[in-house]
Amino acid sequence: MSFWYQNGVCSNNRHSHRQDNRKTCQVVGAFLIISICGVVAQAQDATPPGFIARFDITQQLEYSDNPDLDEDGDSDLYGRTIFGLALESVTNVQRFSFNLGTELEEWRDDQSTFDFTNSSASLGYDRDTQNANIGLNLRYRESDENSEFFDDEFDLDGNVINQDSGTRKSYGVGLDGAFGLQDPIGASYRLDYTSLEYNDTDDPDLTDQSNLDIEGALNFRLDPRIVARLTAKYIDFDTDGNGVDRETTGLGAGVVLDINPRLVADIGLSYDNIDRSGDETGTDDGITATVDLTQQMTNGTVGLSFASDVTSNDDGRRTFLSLDRVMDLTRSSSVNLSLGATYSDGAGVDPIVNLEYIQQRPSSSFNIGLSQRVNTDSDNEEEINTTLRAGYAHSINNTSSLGLDVALFDRNELGDNPDDGQRYDIGITYRHELTRDWSLIGSYTYRFETSDEGSDRDSNTVFVGIQRSFEWNP
CA-CA-CA-CA torsion for 196, 197, 200, 205, nearest 10 degrees? Predict the structure, then answer.
């Protein structure tokens, strides 16, 4: 279903492993950090009434035969401390959340005694009333070298699989909302701004970039079953240095029809104009059309989606068609499946599959997710990014559990001279609750990465650690 309807209206740093007894003693001594932080956390004042606060700290002793996933990486033994802070307040009409996290690496071979890495922060606020809603989010994320930052952003930014060294910083702000939800005339809006910055990288494809996306609609409730809309959008994609800048404007109209109590149709048309500058110059324009049909079923929904979009690259107009099914299989399992295809003049036909399956049992859980998305990178080339994840968790007894996670990331570039790439992750984790708040954790991870323009590389990593959680609920 469209945005309008959902809103109610519409390194190559190589580490040489030193056989140093002093270093080993320092790493082991880092475990004392958790005790110190525990005392500090307990000494803090209680959070204000209505808030839930949580502070987590994990101290690990970690060994990897190739920690930075270099072509000829050296092994290393070091300590890692992971901090996490979360604040949340929820009422009947609003929700506030704040999350802060960072990692502290101790005694890596080529770094100072302590080095903060992979920091992140987010703030969110949502307010819903009968006739209006508003949402705000602020986000920041810093990812260093062999970090896992593209695990949750790969669908949108497939080129980051090429990063061998350096730091990636992501800033973002989002605002969305609607008003006049029950009135004859209302409106909805959405704004999202994201900025990416790369430092100390040696890959020319990793270009600083920003994206501003603004959409708005005026909604007219002509009948309890008919809501018409006028839409406008503005998208500004900018690159710093090499790349293609794209500025998109669009004006359109649409309608949401309740064909019957169980069948809803959402139809939209927009005239879009895309101006290109930088490494390419030119203008592309035309009609963008979308049609979504959703039928309520006894155990979920079934839908048909069609979209035909104007594009700014040589592949020409891109068309999507998919059949969607959301279904509760049993009380403890559900599936969300989308089967379809996408077509463009330059690239031909490609299948598109999206899947989410969840099963929850008293002593175990299983989930699998498959996501495919067509993305246009900073060089104005299209790519299909595929993410496959599967996870299984099993409670051995009241205090112990075992988890298995598998992930695949695949970048399939559709233009000339493609640089396809893949990464595979396999991880096994064991957790044992020592007390109500203390846990012992251990893990093994295997990672393999390859690309057409790079050498194969892999790593094996094991760690053992302890975790402490503090929670306040006044």
Answer: 50
